Amino acid sequence: MSESIFTKIIKREIPANFVYEDDDVVALEDINPVAPVHILIIPKKPIPTLNDASDDDENLMGKMILTAKKIALEKGIAEDGYRLVFNCNEGAGQTVFHIHCHLLGGRYFNWPPG
Ligand code: AMP
Description:
Blueprint: H1 5-10, E1 18-21, E2 25-29, E3 37-43, H2 58-75, E4 82-85, E5 101-105
Antiparallel strand pairs: 1-2, 2-3, 3-5, 4-5
Bound molecules: adenosine monophosphate (AMP).
């Protein structure tokens, strides 16, 4: 399978606005934000979709969510509220097939989503 755009970003072959990086995950500003705060938390391991995550990825998936929480605190949106989104496959709107978590905040979000 060819490399995803996120792998190219992680390898610094394509520029992006990084807000966090460690050995396992990166976080960067979404290029097409749908909220005042729109950060993508992306594992360095190129798992295509949530369906492809295995029990071995349990710690990594937890780390993604806790990284999102830390960034929400840093961005000052934790108190008002924020939303985490994993789109899985085309039917849910996934366009980049390298698993990622959207951190969305800075505005009100309707529930249920459209
Ligand atoms: P999804 O639709 O859940 O697969 O989300 C993919 C997200 O990646 C979208 O919100 C895009 O705006 C975002 N995106 C695509 N290319 C880039 C890029 N080069 N830098 C930052 N975000 C990107």
